[in-house]
Each structure stands twice: as C-alpha cells, then as structure tokens.
Specification:
The complex is a heterodimer of chains A (303) and B (267).
Chain A: H1 2-41, E1 45-46, E2 52-53, H2 59-65, E3 66-68, E4 75-77, H3 79-111, H4 115-130, H5 133-144, H6 149-157, H7 170-194, H8 198-206, H9 211-239, H10 243-249, H11 256-264, H12 270-302
Antiparallel strand pairs in A: 1-2, 3-4
Helix pairs in contact in A: 1-12, 2-12, 3-7, 3-9, 4-7, 5-7, 5-10, 7-9, 7-10, 8-9, 9-12, 11-12
Chain B: H1 14-35, H2 52-59, H3 61-92, H4 101-113, H5 116-134, H6 140-163, H7 168-175, H8 180-209, H9 212-217, H10 225-232, H11 239-264
Helix pairs in contact in B: 2-11, 3-6, 3-8, 4-6, 6-8, 7-8, 8-11
The chains are: A mainly alpha (303), B mainly alpha (267).
C-alpha cells in the first residue's frame, strides 16, 4: 500500500509540474531571467554607443550614489541622483497620503450605501481602473495645461491675464499620480470596509464615543489590513512610475523611472541604468517585505 | 438600525470627500470625450460639434498600423497567457500544499510586484542581445513580453473560479471511468469558462494598455496605439488624440461591464 500511495503521489507531482511548466518557462524567459541579466550588466563597462563592453567594473554601482569631480578628481555624493531618488520617495509618499485622504472616505461612503447600490458605485471606481493609464494621464494633462481647460476658463472669466503654469512641476506629477492610482486605494479599502460589523460601531456610540473616536478607535483598526494593502498598491507603482512623471513633469522633474530610461537613451550608460533599476527593485522589495510582515502580524493578532 | 434619528453610519465630511473624489475622477474623462467632438483644433476652446477628428484618426495610416499591431499583440499575448494560466491554475488550485508552492506562486505573481520599468529595462537588455545574435526583429519579442506580464492577470480570475467549484462532479466522472482529459473537457471546462473568459479579457485589456514595456521592447516602426500616443505628446496636441482615447475608453467600459457580469455568474 505504501508503495502504491507514493507512486500515486509521484505521478500527481509530475502532472502538476508538467501543467505548471509552460507558464513558468514564459515567466523565466521574459520576467525573472532578464532580471538576472540586468544584475550582470550592472557590473560591466558601458559601450561607446550604448550597450556594454564585457569588462568587469563597479563604476555603474559607484555612480548610483557618488561621482568623481571632473576637475580635481575628488569623490562626492551624486547630488543629481540623490535629489531624483529623494523626489521619487517624497512624491510616492505624498501620493499615498493623498490617495488615503480621498480613497478611505470614498470606500466608506460606498460601503455604507444600500446593498443594491454598492455595485453601481464600485463600477464607477472600476471604470477608471480599467482605463488606459496613458489616457487618464492625458485627460488630466489637458485639464491643467497652459492652453488647457482650467486656464482657458479662468482667462475667459477674466480672473487671470496670463495662464498659470501648473504643468511641469512636482505638484502636477503629484496630481497626475493621485489621479491614476486612486482606484488602487479604493478597491482594497472597500473590500475590508464591506465586511465591517456595524454593531461594533453602534456599541461605540452606546458608550458615548464621539464620531471621530468611533472612526479612530473602532473603524480604522478594523479596516487596517485594507488600508495597508491600498497604501502598498499605490506606493509601489508610484515609486517606479515612468509615464506620469514623463507626461506631467516634461523632462524637468525626473523621477527614478525617467532617470533609468535616460541611461538607456541619451545617457548611453547601460551599467548605471541597470544598477539604478536594481536599486529601485530593492527599495520596492523592502516595502513589500514590510507589508508581508505587517499583514502577517495582523493575521496572528486576529487569529 | 437608526435609533432616534441618529445615523451610526455617518462620518462627518466623508460624503463630501467621496463626491469630490468622483468629480475628480470623472471631470477630466468627460472633458476628454467632449473635446474629441470639437470642430476646432483646440482641446480647450469649444467651436462646435463635428466628427472630423474621428475621421482624421480613422484615415491616419500610422494610427491604422498601430491599431492593427496593438490588436495582434493583445490577441496572441492574451491567448498564450490564458492557456498557460488555465494549466497553472489547475495545477495549483484545490490541491494539498506541495513542495515548491511558494516559489511557483512567487514566479506567477512576479509581474505584479516588480516595477514595470525594471522589467522593461531587463527585457531591453535581453532582447538586444538576442536581436544581434539572430537578426530577428519581428513582433514575437513583444508578444512574449506581453504574454509574460499578462499571466498573473489571467491566472487570478481562473483560480478564483476554480476555488469556488465543487470537486464532487469531477470525482463522479472519474468514478465512471472517464479519462482525466475527458473529465477536464466535459466536466471541468464547462464550469470554468466564465473564469477563463474573464481572465482572457483582463489579459487582453492589460496588453492593449501597456506603454512602458512596449516602449522599451519595440523595434523601430513597431509602435502600438499607446506608444504612438506617447510619441505624439512632443507635438501639438489636437483633438485627434482625444478621439483615439475616447474609442479606447469605450472598449474599456465595455470590457469592465462584461467582466463584472461574468464574475457574477454562479457556479
């Protein structure tokens, strides 16, 4: 009997891996494999016209944070790169906060509608979520351009004489990222709000809690997993954003994604680009590990 | 629930913020649609209704090429991603925990976790080596790249559907000496199809919308609709872009409604 059951188990295991193989092969070929090659490239020497020369070098990694002065050859921090890195982190955090500010009340609003209306409200969140990110960025671009809707309207009303420069600033990138990533906050927060047990809220009021106390002490702790998931879902793509800062920042206000692209285009420094992209990956992984740890703790807490 | 007119579900200001949120989400989209019908060349000064920008987009050869290319890539990428996702979902759902499970899940979900720009750069490096070695510069690179990042999007709805399915029918069929393939074709597949269709649609839309990976992987003259639009940004924007966007928007709305209805079909 033991022999038979091991044979059956072995066969089941073989079938399983055979079924998994096609998906895993494609993913190794076009998702995880290339990351390893990127890591290798970050340790090579840049070629004159892009590409690499197969000679080991740590310059790519060195140049991520530091630079050698071209005149007196002294070492210093790479101010340009550090300021772009700082801007990326700062704007991503601000985007996450802005999405929390708009997303949490919206999710709460939808979760407290009558049951048959909720799907309709959620559809209104799903439509922008399914709409091309570029189109949504375009839509907000057309709103705030110098020739855009807001400026045209204000000029027509005579409130201003010259268009207000709103585009190509950090503020416009922030607005763009808030706009495109907002649905990513509402979806998970709503998922946990929907399961909220309102008898607990009622109990809070019976004990003379104010509305704000109920929100802070009863509702927020219960929906915390959704809020954390939403924050990660917004923060991670914000950090690696490429399209939105390119369209809304117009080349003046680079973020990490644009700096990486620059190395493969005009910069012709593929090893530096590879090192920067591994750096971005590491930051994202740290954020995800932080998330898994926190989510795991929440589970243990409730279980 | 409401006692003495006191609404326990109310939170001061939340309704206002929520309405502001919906206005913020929809105003730019509505303006985009409205100005696609502008008869003038401006995207902000209304000069009257006309279809001229739809006609001009329709007759624009670059737009035609990009549209066909986008559809071909999205079709093949979603077909490949969905087929392999069905197999992967069958292998990983409704089974006891197996060795390598965590690794398999991590692999499948990798495209959701790694920033797109990182994957894009990695694929640029890999494919530039292959392009030099083989001399082939066709659409296959884009199809494989798209198929890879579409896999998790196809996998998740299929897996969700499988998890909700009853094992007993399949066991009954197997008890009646149906071969595993026959069980799959006659019992599993008919129950699974809403999940497969939902997964395929999600993969199709994700492929159709992709900008970053396409921008880095494409060879010269291989613009898809989104990368064509991104390229147009450097020039003066005319409502032609609005017209193309409105059509794509229409496709997305159709897809999301169909997707919602599909996920509602009961087992």
């Amino acid at each position: 009997m033991a022999d038979l059951s091991t044979t059956v188990a072995k066969r089941a295991s073989r079938t399983r891996w055979m079924l998994l193989a096609p998906a895993l092969i494609i993913l190794v070929l076009a998702a995880s494999g290339p990351l390893l090659i990127t890591l290798v490239y970050s340790f090579l020497t840049p070629g004159d016209y892009g590409g690499v020369v197969w000679k080991f070098s740590t310059d790519g990694w060195f140049n991520v944070f530091a630079q050698r002065d071209i005149f007196d050859d002294t070492l210093g921090w790479s101010d340009a790169h550090l300021s772009i890195l700082w801007r990326s982190i700062k704007l991503s955090l601000m985007t996450t906060l802005a999405c929390l500010f708009f997303g949490v009340p919206t999710a709460y609003f939808i979760a407290t509608r009558p049951k048959q209306q909720r799907d309709m409200w959620m559809l209104l969140i799903m439509i922008p979520f399914w709409t091309n990110l570029l189109i949504r960025t375009f839509a907000i671009l057309e709103l705030i351009r110098n020739e855009g809707t807001i400026n045209t309207l204000l000029l027509w009303l005579g409130i201003i004489d010259a268009p207000i420069q709103m585009l190509y600033t950090e503020g416009s990138i922030l607005l763009g990222m808030l706009y495109v990533y907002l649905p990513l906050m509402v979806l998970p927060v709503y998922a946990s709000m929907e399961r909220l047990d309102f008898s607990l809220v009622e109990a809070g009021y019976d004990l003379y809690a104010t509305r704000f106390q109920v929100l802070r002490r009863v509702i927020m702790p219960l929906v915390k997993p959704g809020v954390i998931a939403g924050s990660i879902l917004v923060f991670v793509p914000s950090l690696g954003a490429y399209v939105t800062p390119r369209v809304m920042g117009g080349g003046n206000q680079l973020m990490l994604g644009n700096l990486i692209e620059l190395q493969f285009g005009q910069g012709r420094n593929w090893p530096l680009g590879a090192a920067l992209s591994i750096t971005l990956l590491v930051i994202v992984m740290v954020a995800l590990i932080f998330y898994v740890r926190t989510a795991g703790k929440e589970d243990a807490h409730h279980g | 629930m409401a006692k003495h007119g006191f609404d326990i579900k109310k939170q001061t200001g939340f309704g206002t913020i929520a309405i502001a949120c919906f206005i913020l989400l929809y105003t730019p989209i509505f303006l985009l649609i409205i100005y696609s019908f502008n008869s003038g060349t401006s995207i902000a000064a209304w000069e009257g209704f006309s279809w001229r920008w739809y006609v001009s987009a329709w007759e624009n050869e670059q737009v035609q090429d990009a549209t066909v290319r986008s559809l071909v890539i999205a079709f093949w990428a979603s077909a490949i991603a969905t087929s392999v996702a069905v197999m992967a979902a069958l292998a990983t759902t409704r089974t006891p925990k197996f060795k390598g499970q965590t690794a398999a899940f991590a692999m499948i979900n990798q495209p959701l976790m790694v920033p797109e720009i990182v994957t894009a750069v990695a694929l640029l490096i890999l494919f530039s080596v292959i392009k030099v070695a083989t001399g082939y510069t066709g659409l296959l690179y884009l199809i494989i790249a798209h198929a890879a990042f579409c896999i998790p999007f196809a996998y998740l709805p299929i897996r969700a559907r499988l998890q909700g399915m009853d094992l007993s029918l399949e066991q009954a069929a197997a008890d009646l000496y149906a071969s595993p393939f026959l069980v799959f074709r006659r019992v599993t597949l008919p129950q699974l199809w809403p999940g497969i269709l939902a997964g395929a649609m999600l993969a199709f839309v994700i492929s159709l919308d992709d900008v970053v990976i396409t921008e880095f992987v494409k060879s010269a003259g291989q613009d898809t609709l989104p990368t064509y639009m991104l390229g147009q940004l450097r020039r003066v924007i005319t409502p032609e872009i609005n017209a193309i966007s409105t059509v794509l928007l229409g496709i997305s709305v159709f897809m999301v409604v169909a997707f919602t209805l599909l996920s509602k079909i009961r087992n």
